[in-house]
Design brief:
3-deoxy-manno-octulosonate cytidylyltransferase activity; 11 strands; EC 2.7.7.38; nine-stranded mixed sheet; two-stranded antiparallel ribbon; KdsB; 254 residues; nucleotidyltransferase
């Protein structure tokens, strides 16, 4: 079994749901559920990275390792790189970035990303995608699409419908019979520590600014992103009060 670590970036500030990691879901703070998913994936080490003492204290009381990080980081990736440096992880160690608002993430997805990365040597980062079943999702800018090469490495990520099927769109949204499935990107990443160090030295790219997709920085700087295809898109995380109620109902039934 592939050895890997999980880091869960968790910030207190949230425009729509302030204090989101600490919100109660089925009798536990949301961050506790996320940590449980990481442990169920058989991660050898689970660390919460935060810049807030309230989150630090709550997670520490759960018996989960917690690291205070710089509040000025621009992304969770930078926060994870700081954790790796502080804890002295080696360049070849595999780290999965698990968002702190994903209490329903299947543990198998966490393992899939880590194991996909471990099976090859060309990319320092792996992520997930699943086939789009609903044609309307192809045109939804909140659903990020990805196109792969023949070896499973990303050619491009976009909020636009890619690839553009010239004969079918935009007059018809029926994807039946198309010989190339449309893939939705799932924002779960596994990295090597060595990749994280390189990433933090790169400047933002024009592509990521236009699409508002941080992963395009990697392609812009000439590195590969391995994409592991999984059976289905995981249930959405928590961004709104409605999401909170949905997830709470789901976990109360579990």
């Amino acid at each position: 079994m592939t050895a890997f670590k999980v880091v869960i970036p968790a910030r207190y500030a949230s425009t729509r749901l302030p204090g989101k990691p600490l919100l109660d879901i089925a009798g536990k703070p949301m961050i506790a559920h996320v940590c449980e998913r990481a442990l169920e994936a058989d991660a050898e080490q689970v660390v919460v990275a935060t810049d807030d003492s309230r989150i630090f204290d709550t997670v520490s009381a759960l018996g989960i390792q917690t690291v205070m990080t710089d509040p000025n980081h621009q992304s969770g990736t930078e926060r994870i790189a700081e954790v790796a440096e502080k804890l002295g992880w080696r360049d070849g160690d595999i780290v999965v970035n698990l968002q702190g608002d994903e209490p329903l993430i299947p543990p198998a997805c966490i393992r899939d990303a880590a194991e996909a990365l471990a099976r090859q040597k060309q990319a320092g980062i792996a992520t997930l995608a699943a086939k789009i079943e609903d044609a309307d999702e192809i045109f939804n800018p909140n659903a990020v699409k990805v196109v792969l090469d023949q070896h499973g490495y990303a050619l491009y990520f976009s909020r636009a419908p890619i690839p553009w099927h010239r004969a079918s769109f935009p007059d018809c949204r029926d994807t039946a019979g198309l010989n190339m499935p449309y893939l939705r990107h799932i924002g779960l990443y596994a990295y090597t520590v060595g990749f994280l160090k390189r990433y933090c030295g790169w400047s933002p790219s024009p592509l990521e600014s236009v699409e508002a997709l941080e992963q395009l920085r990697i392609l812009w700087h000439g590195e590969k992103v391995l994409v592991q295809i999984v059976d289905r898109i995981p249930e959405a995380g928590v961004d709104t009060e409605e999401d909170l109620r949905r997830v709470a109902a789901r976990l109360a039934r579990a």
